[in-house]
Amino acid sequence: MPDWVLVVISVIAGLVLVWLVLLLVLWAQARRAGSAVDWRQIVRLVADVVVLLKRLVADPAVPRGARWWLGGLLVYLLLPIDLVPDFIPVLGYADDAIIVAVALRYAMRTAGRPAIERHWPGTPEGLRSLLSLTGAD
Questions:
Q1: How many Å apart are CA 95 and CA 86, to the nearest integer?
Q2: Is the pTM of the predicted complex or chain greater than 0.70?
Q3: Is 34 helix (H, G, I), strand (E, B) or coil?
Q4: What is the C-alpha to C-alpha distance for residues 70 and 106, in angstroms, rounded to an integer?
Q5: N or C end of the chain: which has fewer CB within 10 A?
Q6: CA–CA separation, 57 vs 71, rounded Å?
Q7: Distances (CA, A) of 19 to 11, 54, 84, 106, 117
Q8: Closest among 113, 137, 123 to 51, alpha carbons compared
């Protein structure tokens, strides 16, 4: 087997292992917290984040790199295929939350918090949750 194939397989296996460890940690944290999840608020937050992403992608004042990144995130969220299927309890939505947090953290650094606040369509509580998720609060 050629060396490059072994390298590709090793990189993919390493990424899968890191992802599985991260999901295990998130699952353990969710079990340890033991708090009830209000699914209506989560669904509303997800819808507000999708609208926010569309608005940020359409805003020419947002840097082009951030718009491309957020456009890719929007496509990922709208596709029915996920890294971890959503029917798996806790972990199914955890991968989406992680990807959204990373992409929005990048957007926050490049576009700035005022752009996020200007385009936020939801409630102030939802914005606080989003800022907390991205580490910007």
A1: 9
A2: no
A3: coil
A4: 9
A5: N
A6: 6
A7: 12, 27, 10, 20, 31
A8: 123
